[in-house]
Amino acid sequence: MLVGPSVLRMTTAPPDDLRARLLDLAERRDGVLHRPEVLHAGIPRWVLQAELRVGRWQRTGPQTVVVHNGPLSARQRRAVAVLEVGPRAALDGLSALQHTGLDLDDDAAGVHVIAPKGSTPKHPRGVRVHESRRFHEDDVVVRHGVRCVQPAVAAVHGALWARSDRAARLLLVVVVQQGLATVEHLQDAVAQVRRSPRGRLLRATAADLRSGVRALGELDLARLLRRHGLPQPDRQVVRRRPSGRQYL
């Protein structure tokens, strides 16, 4: 009985050079492969299928494969989310900030992904897709191989989507506190918000950050003093000295 070439491919291991090319593609995105990218690179489909068939790698959606068979890391989950939503999608809000390095957890929120209005994005399980007119391609950068909205804009979007006003204020404060965005860039992003119930809250928070607030407790105190017509306190400032940073 003669066996065709396609059957032989499916019953033999992929050549080392083709497997190495797949691993090189995956490395730029923390081990996540985008199936259309694989085909565009000229790697035959059967090479990927062979790794999946023996269980060394795992399929994470119609568009993605991860080059191991264990639990996905947070960065891998975010990469899979963006690639599965669509080609113009990008991480946004808290998820974009976490991918950039923000130290703030909110596991219950899922992965936030933004896509242009009218782009018919997919809605994978565990992904909160925001099909929005606030999407602008100029705001998108690539981090760890994944499309992300830049931090100041992502912080403002995340504040608009937050579950409470306090969570919205906290996100803006932490982004500045951890140095992911400057107050000036944050104010510019806030100025782009139109017709939102939280617009006034975001502008007031950005103004407090401009005055030197760097903690949620300071923010609460500033709002309390304004409410009772009392003067604002002097804020601490950072001074760089030969011995290091000092707060005065």
* Average predicted confidence as pLDDT: 87
N-to-C CA distance = 85 Å
Task: Summarize the main sheet.
Answer: 3 strands, antiparallel
Number of strands: 10
**What is the succession of H and E elements?**
HHEHHEEHEHEEEEHHHHHEE
Q: What spatial form do the alpha-carbon principal axes imply?
A: elongated
Unreliably modeled segments: 1-11
Q: What proportion of the residues is helical, as a percent range?
A: 40-55%
- Quaternary class: single chain
Radius of gyration: 23 Å
Sheet/helix structural class: alpha+beta
How much strand content do the residues show?
Answer: 15-25%
Provide the spatial order of strands within the biggest beta sheet: 1-3-2
The tally of helices reads 11
Molecular structure report:
The chain is an alpha+beta fold. It contains 11 helices and 10 strands. A 3-stranded antiparallel sheet has the order 1-3-2. Strands 4-5-6 form a 3-stranded mixed sheet. It has a two-stranded antiparallel ribbon with strand order 7-8. A hairpin with a 2-residue loop joins strand 9 and strand 10. The longest helix has 13 residues. The N terminus is likely disordered.
